[in-house]
Amino acid sequence: MHLDSPLKIKNICLSNRIVMPPMAREESIDGKVTYPLIEYYRMRAKSTGLIIVEHEYVREEGKSSPKQLSMADDSVIDGYIELTESIHREGSFAIAQINHGRYGSISSNNVNLNGISIEEIEDIKKAFVEAAVRSQKSGFDGVEIHAAHEYLLNQFYSPYTNKRTDEYGGSLENRMRLHNEIIREIREAVGDDYIIAIRFGAYDYLEGGSKMEDIPAAVKSFVESGVDMIDISGGLCRYQNPYSREPGYFKDLSKIAKESCDIPVILTGGVKKAKDAERLINEGYCDLIGIGRALLMDGDWSKKAIRKVRKIKSDK
After folding, report:
1. Domain-wise residue ranges, the chain
2. Tens digit of pLDDT for each residue in 33-47?
3. Is the dihedral of CA 12, 13, 17, 20 positive or negative?
4. Pick from 231, 123, 243: which is nearest to 182 by CA?
5. What top-level branch of life does the organism fall under (predicted)?
6. Alpha carbons 264 and 220: distance in angstroms, whole number
7. How many CA atoms, within 13 angstroms, populate the side-chain half-sphere of residue 279?
8. E strands, the chain, where?
9. Does residue 19 contact residue 288 with C-beta atoms inside 8 Å?
10. 151 assigned to active site
């Protein structure tokens, strides 16, 4: 398995193992995509196997920033159709990432998930499902549920922030209940052929937070609920490992996830060089490599990386 190896997921086949992970540009107008944003993604779709578009809020109450993209109503669909068509024309595939913003502030320790009623939980689930259906209508090849980086679903998963005493708190099963209900309801709404991924905040690196040994059970439950791809990242520590800056610094988490399921696993974190991406795939840490900052800085990174990998292979 190499960086330039194709990979079939559901009814699509990626040309290589490079993924552009979601990175918020904050360039929307009223939550809608703009022409510069479409062009930005189009340029990076060249020679990139998969594009995961930056997070979109599923309802107004879950908006994280003023210029965040929206997937909260049907008015956004036409713009996304232009975006997905531009990505497809370059030979890549596109997944939308849907998200609900954090509840309270972890830094000031004022997170109280008990303040979210069962009725509101139902509203949140409905909003995720409706957003997923909009992503399908918009021409995306799949949808990714954002459950990492201190956002709402990550807060439900982590025992550090989830102190609920009902069916949505306490045990690992209960802390994953909202995730799994959302996955199952989305699957029912979009059908069997549409890709569902989850960006999983697998570990908080924090005393009293989520545990590394819970990853296998969490991953297996997501797969059973209907997920087709696991995108590994940090939990309450967000998108950085506080103890490592090496290329692929979440590799230990992704290795556990990969050994716990038979669906593709994405590893993202500090990978800037093609040789490191190739090595992490060959060493079995993941099936796909997320290239974030490097692709942000150089829209031709994927093209150059594939060229380098093929040269290395031909020289052997």
Report:
1. 7-315
2. 999 999 999 999 999
3. negative
4. 123
5. Archaea
6. 13
7. 10
8. 7-9, 12-14, 18-20, 50-57, 69-70, 93-99, 142-147, 195-201, 229-233, 265-268, 288-290
9. yes
10. yes
> Which CATH fold topology does 7-315 show?
TIM Barrel (3.20.20)
Residues 95-122 pLDDT 10s: 999 999 998 765 546 688 999 999 999 9
pLDDT tens for residues 38-90? 999 999 999 999 999 999 999 999 999 999 999 999 999 999 999 999 999 99
Three-point CA angle 139, 142, 147, nearest 5°: 135
User: What is the rounded CA–CA span in Å between residue 174 and residue 225?
Assistant: 14
Report the distance separating Cα 23 and Cα 295, nearest Å: 10
- One-letter amino acid at 230 equals I
For the entire predicted model, the pTM comes to 0.96
Per annotation, catalytic residue among 41, 57, 151, 285: 151
**DSSP strands (E only) in 155-280:** 195-201, 229-233, 265-268
Among the residues of 22-117, which ranges form H helices?
A: 35-45, 77-89
User: What residue type is assigned to position 21 of the chain?
Assistant: P
